[in-house]
Amino acid sequence: MLFPKYNKSIKGNYLIDKKTKHLLRRIRTNQIAVIHHTDIDEIAAQGLIEKKVKAIINFSPSFTGSYPTLGLKKILDRKIPVFDVKNQTTHLFPKIPDQNKVEIDIVNNIAYFESLPERIMVEIEPCTIEKWEDLFKKARQNLENELGRFINNTLEHALKEKDFFLKPLKIPLLKTQIKGKHVVVVVRGTDYREDLSAIKSYIEDIKPVLIGVDGGADALLEYGLIPDIILGDMDSVSDQALRSGAEILVHAYPNGYAPGLKRIYDLGLEAKIIPSKGTSEDVAMLLAYEKQAEIIVALGTHSHMVDFLEKGRKGMASTILVRMKIGNKLVDAKGVSKLYHPQVHWKSLSFIGLAATTPILAISMINHDMVRLLQMMWINIKMIFM
């Protein structure tokens, strides 16, 4: 039997939202998530798992096989039933009430949504590991073609946008002092928890300026760290984070239009806008660079094709341009947790490190560039061995 935990049907209260990240802010344990999310990404999958949803009904294909993403597999591995709505009934999504009861007939593959004047019926099909594996093979085979399109899009838009990123960013007057300090930019990307845990002792030692990009602010709060700045379009950060006392910068379109401001004002908070092209994490790194940060540590940021395709972006032009601009100050901590070796502790190397660096320290006293190089080396050594 496909769902041994259930007899003939799955019943419960549901919550519906076209944007999964908005639904995750409202849904409760044991509710059924009704979404409209093509190729469920890993962050959305992790959020649904953590909310302990009873089941998921998706009005878009949970995995198309157009590129390799593991979101659906993560959910299925946790034994959470996932159903995709068949094409002929996907048009019913807007007619379904925001929240009510639903019954999923797992024998006849039909979902019945309670509504007035009558129930709404949609045809569904269960997602299985076997189907996912078949589509994943297809995705791997299609990877070269997808990468080609991604590169072409990136280069095309990079040429169009380069003049914008050559100019200084328009930054409002900030309360937070950045000049000469280390800055950690936190994005809630893949493995952000593990990576944040890996560099927490660095954060406690150096006390850098902490910039949470949207939900990255909540990631910091999870570890008892208060963001100094929250930057983003404000669509995936919690009210709790926004009320943490951080300086709030709303990422606006280049013309100054900032839809995220409304939410801030509705909460009775103050914010400034920062108009720019690119993603909010690009803007956060540019902000640190323009304000003369000594070192910029990026954690959880999006850096490769699958990352961007999962966000619905067909290229990464702005990210390439920004990293070209700030490169000598950037330390990318994404995936640093995978370098951790339990049998080695960085403190055990302190005497060796001291002996080896004594002559270098002497040189560094008269060479500012050597000081910066040593700082960069020390950060990377701590990330590997702590």
Quick structural gist:
This protein has 386 residues and is an alpha/beta fold. Helices cover 39% and strands 18% of the residues. The chain contains 15 helices and 14 strands.
How would you characterize the overall build of this protein?
The protein has helices at residues 20-26, 42-50, 71-77, 129-141, 143-166, 192-198, 200-206, 216-222, 239-242, 261-266, 280-290, 305-310, 317-326, 350-364, 368-385; strands at residues 9-16, 32-35, 55-58, 82-85, 99-105, 110-113, 120-126, 182-187, 209-213, 229-232, 247-252, 272-275, 295-299, 330-332. The protein has 386 residues and is of the alpha/beta class. The protein folds into three domains: 9-138, Aconitase, domain 4; 162-337, Rossmann fold (3-Layer(aba) Sandwich), CATH 3.40.50; 341-386, no CATH class. The strands form two sheets. It has a seven-stranded mixed beta barrel. A hairpin with a 4-residue loop joins strand 5 (99-105) and strand 6 (110-113). Helix 11 packs parallel to helix 13. The relative contact order is 0.10.
